[in-house]
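User: Could you go from structure to sequence for me? I need the amino acid at each position, not a summary. C-alpha cells:
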C-alpha cells in the first residue's frame, strides 16, 4: 500500500502561482521523520498516492516499475506514502513491517507513513470519490509546485504524459 497524506488546510501556491504541495511530515520505513516538499527542494519529485487499501497494488506497480526501470533516475526521486489517518495505533507498525518485507531497502527512506491531513492532499491532487481506489500521481517541480496530476493504472498514455511533463521541467 503506497499512499500520501498532507498536514495543513487548503492548497498553498508556489512562487510561480501553481498549487503547492502542503507541508507533509511522516515517518519513513526506517522510522525517520521526513518533511515534504522540503526533502525534495531544488529537484522535481514524483509522489505516488493511494487513498484506499484497494489502491495499494496499483500504487506499487507504478512505484516499483519506475524505480526498477531507472527512467527517472536521481533527477526525480519517487516518494510513496501510506495514509493511515484514523487507523488504530498499532497499524503503522504492522504496515511498516509488511512493507519492509516487500520493498527493497534502497527505497525505505522514500516510503512515508502518515497519520494526518488526508483532506488537504485530496484537494491538492483533485481526488475523485468515484476513483477512490485509483493510484494518484503528482509531479512536483523544484519549488514544490504541483505540475501534473494523474489518477489511474499504469499505461503507455500515462507514462508518455509523465515523461513529457518531466522533459519540460528538466529543460528549464
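Assistant: Here is the amino acid at each position, in order:
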Amino acid at each position: 500500500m503506497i499512499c500520501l497524506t498532507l498536514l495543513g488546510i487548503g492548497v498553498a501556491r508556489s512562487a510561480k502561482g501553481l498549487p503547492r504541495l502542503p507541508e507533509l511530515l511522516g515517518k519513513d520505513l526506517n522510522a525517520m521523520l521526513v518533511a515534504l516538499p522540503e526533502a525534495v527542494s531544488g529537484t522535481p519529485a514524483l509522489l505516488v498516492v493511494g487513498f484506499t487499501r484497494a489502491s495499494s497494488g496499483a500504487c506499487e506497480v507504478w512505484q516499483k516499475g519506475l524505480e526498477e526501470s531507472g527512467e527517472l533516475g536521481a533527477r526525480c526521486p519517487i516518494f510513496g506514502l501510506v495514509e493511515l489517518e484514523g487507523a488504530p495505533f498499532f497499524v503503522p507498525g504492522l504496515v511498516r513491517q509488511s512493507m519492509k518485507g516487500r520493498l527493497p531497502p534502497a527505497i525505505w527512506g522514500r516510503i512515508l507513513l502518515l497519520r494526518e491531513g488526508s483532506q488537504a492532499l485530496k484537494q491538492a491532487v483533485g481526488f475523485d470519490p468515484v476513483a477512490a481506489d485509483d493510484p494518484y500521481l503528482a509531479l512536483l517541480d523544484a519549488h514544490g509546485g504541483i505540475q501534473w496530476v494523474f489518477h489511474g493504472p499504469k499505461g503507455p498514455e500515462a507514462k508518455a504524459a509523465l515523461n513529457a511533463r518531466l522533459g519540460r521541467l528538466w529543460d528549464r
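One structural detail worth keeping in mind: The chain has one domain: 12-170.
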